Amino acid sequence: MKNEFLLKAVNINKSYSVGTFIKKRRQILDNINIDIKAGEIVGCVGESGSGKSTLARIITLLESPDNGKLIFEGKPANAKDIKFRKGVQMVFQNPVSSFDPTKTIGKSIKEPFNGFSLSYNRDKVYALFDRMHLPVSILSKKPYEISGGMAQRAAIARSLVADPKLLVLDEATSSIDATIQLELVELLFEIKERRKIGYFVISHDLELINYMASRVYVLYEGRVVEYGNTDEVYNNPRHPYTKKLLN
Ligand SMILES: Nc1ncnc2c1ncn2[C@@H]1O[C@H](COP(=O)(O)OP(=O)(O)OP(=O)(O)O)[C@@H](O)[C@H]1O
Ligand SMILES: [Mg+2]
């Protein structure tokens, strides 16, 4: 079938230059292969430093891989291509710092309209706020004047302005109180059903991934050491790291 995968990363490698006096290249991602189908929720787990956020930045092309290919809707992805930039959006861990502290939420919400050459549509913003259970009164507030949970829902509302096909959620619920984390996850499920959107959910929280994702990739020291249906991986882990992780 054509375009079976919404996004496919093929043999992705990434290294960074490290060291103050003696510069060395450190391999952060080592030959990563992942794929995400349209409307699918795919998880990514791994310990701190395993390369999850680096992978997130690469599949959204906020950074380029050293080599490897990224295919979006059957074509090589290009960071300059507006279809790709609209189609794949990132939601970061820290909701408050994902907004400019000097600007009101309302001003920040206007940015993607400008960035994607769309005319500002207040009804759309109001509808997205309604969907995210947010009062429109926060549009006149600064990010630090609202709760972390609200700021994260506003960040998700903003990421939906461009009608993306995929949201990359990098620990997007981790900094939120456990009590409202579930509410946010339920909202994400609702959005997925209505919009047929896919999620790449990055988390160190195995329970969250189990709850949300139908498939999972396990990252360890920059490599995918195991992947498959979440149930199968969780019930029958094969790699020693996954066994330890699930212990
Ligand atoms: N710009 C950079 N320059 C040099 N090293 C970097 C850079 N960005 C990340 N790293 C290193 O790459 C490794 C992977 O980092 P990354 O943030 O992708 O891990 P992570 O799995 O997201 O960790 P966490 O769970 O703590 O968020 C770490 O050792 C980190 O120090
Ligand atoms: Mg990270």
What's a concise summary of this model?
The chain is of the alpha/beta class and 247 residues long. Helices cover 34% and strands 26% of the residues.
Explain the overall architecture.
- By secondary structure, the protein is of the alpha/beta class.
- It has a single domain, classed as P-loop containing nucleotide triphosphate hydrolases (Rossmann fold).
- The protein is built from nine helices and ten strands.
- The chain has helices at 52-59, 82-87, 105-115, 122-131, 148-159, 178-195, 206-212, 230-235, 240-245; strands at 7-18, 24-36, 41-45, 67-72, 75-76, 88-91, 166-170, 198-202, 215-220, 223-229.
- The chain has a six-stranded mixed sheet, sandwiched between helices. A four-stranded antiparallel sheet has the order 2-1-4-5.
- Helix 3 packs parallel to helix 5.
- The termini are far apart.
- The model has no long low-confidence stretch (mean pLDDT 93).
- The structure holds adenosine-5'-triphosphate and magnesium ion.
- Adenosine-5'-triphosphate (ATP) binds next to strand 1 and helix 1.
- Magnesium ion is lined by residues 52-53, 170.
